[in-house]
Write a structure and sequence with these properties.
Blueprint: E1 2-3, H1 16-28, H2 59-73, H3 77-88, H4 92-107, H5 109-119, H6 132-147, H7 153-167, H8 170-185, H9 198-205, H10 210-220, H11 222-231, E2 238-242, H12 249-258, E3 262-265, E4 272-277, H13 285-289, E5 292-294, H14 297-306, E6 313-316, H15 323-331, E7 337-342, H16 345-358, E8 363-367, E9 382-388, H17 403-406, H18 409-426, E10 430-440, H19 449-458, E11 462-464, H20 477-480, E12 485-488, H21 490-493, E13 498-505
Parallel strand pairs: 1-8, 6-7, 6-9, 7-8, 9-10
Antiparallel strand pairs: 2-4, 2-5, 3-4, 10-13, 11-13, 12-13
Bound molecules: S-adenosylmethionine (SAM).
Length: 506
């Protein structure tokens, strides 16, 4: 790996937390196992603080800290959770419970608030008047009462009251006790109203903002919108991409199974393996050795669509943290040049670290605003260009549920204009006959199909090019591939939502 410095280039500080973070959530909250196991107080984080050293933080202390930061300061839940889990040094099972509580509470926020509004009474002045930590404590406790069947009610209430006593005063702990006991007593009454229109019903049932549901109904239809919203509340799969420089996916699969892991080859990506039991795959020895990377299966399809060949010169315009850069370099047998650009100086290090871990020499990282890339290279310099664009991210809500609440509809227009400017700036750097792949991790038509159609109208020398899908086993993706565009929604294959378009310059 080589580091290139442009006029904007600066050395960055390490941000390994962020790098590890991508993998932390799926690993500690494996698909299909949302319930923490232990019923015994003091075990599995489900008990009261009584059996613990007085000041040792519990899983729920950690979860509350994260949720309060998210509520108060708009912190990214995944980053804050990672930081607080590191600081609190909880046992693995407690860390898993804290993770479940944080993500589940954020995922179900709309629905929980609807019920809470019924339970928090006049004297308590309503939800909006509560201090952020009190609101977060009530939300997370109600989440556990309603969604985590294997955690006993009394443990949830007693730990919430203990936390309230430690943090607040007698009045607050009394109110918390009253609200939660009332929730248990009135559980049968906590149902969603009937007769709502589709937008309101889906928004409330699956906890999504109404504006987003309205857009998705218009773009995908009511049924698909409902399936997408339901899928967004599922735990994401854990998938890894074999570093083909070290060996094919089949060999790695054998090895993992030999180590006792439950894993299978991806139905979507030739280099992918889905791991159903393995904890955080970014912490295993094979990751550090560079045998594989942790990556969602739909992300893996991007380098496949780009079809880079050994010896080529490739530009990755928005490359950090470098998952696709590394995949491209692996597919090229680490020959040729992969130029990896990102706007943010602190993210350059993440790409460097990936390349180093995977033993890649062909990756050259640099810092630049991709909207200015035409100043950096001569026209027609590259055989392949990847624009994995900054986007609204609505395909990855399962991994980052706070996106639902932090993004506004107006953000889509804003990010659309950045995407357009980058495409305008970089398309001239492609050689005739070369391929440009435009991808996003969103399912918004405006940022995807509409963006590509608009670009093609303005640039007659570019045409949609069939995506080579012969290696993608019976996924159904082959049906979409001849059009040159693929849109994957999170309900289809259990992957992140993604969009890929392949354009050829004639
Ligand atoms: C979707 S992420 C890329 C993910 C990456 N391709 C991967 O597979 O790991 C988009 C990236 O674009 C970067 N970015 C945002 N605006 C940019 C700009 N104007 N120029 C270059 N990079 C930009 C962000 O810092 C972010 O790292």
């Amino acid at each position: 790996m080589k580091r290139e410095t442009t006029e904007n280039g600066q050395k960055s500080k390490a941000d390994s937390r962020r790098a590890a973070n991508k993998a932390a959530y799926p690993a500690s909250r494996p698909a299909g196992t949302p319930k923490p196991a232990s019923k015994k107080p003091g075990l599995g984080g489900s008990g009261s603080a009584s059996g613990r050293a007085a000041l040792k933080p519990t899983a729920r202390d950690a979860a509350l800290k994260v949720l309060t930061h998210v509520e108060e300061a708009g912190a990214y839940s995944n980053l804050k959770l990672n930081q607080i889990l590191k600081e609190s040094d909880l046992p693995r099972q407690d860390a898993a419970l804290a993770t479940e509580i944080v993500y589940g509470t954020i995922q179900r926020r709309n629905t929980i608030d609807y019920y809470l509004a019924k339970l928090v009474t006049k004297g308590d002045k309503g939800l909006s008047k509560l201090q952020p930590w009190v609101l977060s404590l009530l939300r997370m406790s109600l989440y556990q009462l309603l969604y985590l069947e294997r955690v006993p009610d009394h443990a949830i209430v007693s730990e919430a009251v203990n936390i309230a006593k430690r943090k607040g005063h007698q009045g607050i702990s009394g109110m918390v006790n009253g609200v939660l006991r009332s929730a248990i007593r009135r559980r049968e009454e906590l149902i969603l109203p009937e007769g709502l229109d589709d937008t309101k019903r889906i928004a409330l049932q699956y906890s999504h903002p109404e504006w987003l549901v309205r857009r998705w109904i218009a773009q995908h239809g009511v049924d698909a919108c409902e399936r997408i919203c339901a899928a967004n509340n599922e735990a994401p799969h854990v998938s890894i991409r074999a570093n083909v420089l070290r060996g094919e996916a089949a060999g790695l699969l054998e090895q993992l199974r030999g180590e006792g892991l439950d894993a299978q080859l991806s139905a979507l990506s030739p280099a992918g393996i889905v791991v159903s039991s393995g904890g955080n795959m970014a912490l295993a020895a094979g990751f550090a050795k560079g045998d594989y990377s942790v990556q969602d299966e739909s992300s893996m399809l991007v380098a496949e669509a780009l079809e880079p060949k050994p010896g080529m010169k490739v530009l990755d315009c928005c490359a950090a943290p470098g998952g696709k850069t590394a995949h491209i370099a692996e597919k090229m047998g680490d020959t040729g040049e992969v130029w990896a650009c990102d706007l943010h100086p602190h993210k350059q290090k993440l790409i460097d670290e990936q390349a180093e871990r995977l033993g890649l020499e062909s990756v050259r990282t640099f810092v630049k605003d991709a909207r200015e890339l035409r100043e950096e290279f001569a026209p027609e310099s590259f055989d392949r260009i990847l624009l994995d664009a900054p986007c609204s991210g609505f395909g990855v809500i399962r991994r980052k549920p706070d996106l639902k609440w932090s993004k506004q509809e107006s953000d889509i227009k804003e990010i659309r204009s950045v995407q357009k400017s980058i495409l305008e700036a970089v398309h001239g750097l492609l050689k005739p006959g070369g391929i440009l792949v435009y991808s996003t991790c969103t399912i918004e038509r405006e940022e995807n199909e509409a963006a590509v159609e608009q670009f093609l109208k303005a640039h007659a020398e570019f045409k949609l090019d069939p995506i080579p899908a012969e290696n993608w086993p019976d996924s159904g993706l082959g049906v979409q591939a001849p059009s040159g565009m693929i849109r994957i929604t999170p309900d289809q294959y259990g992957t992140d939502g993604f969009f890929i378009a392949r354009l050829r310059k004639e």
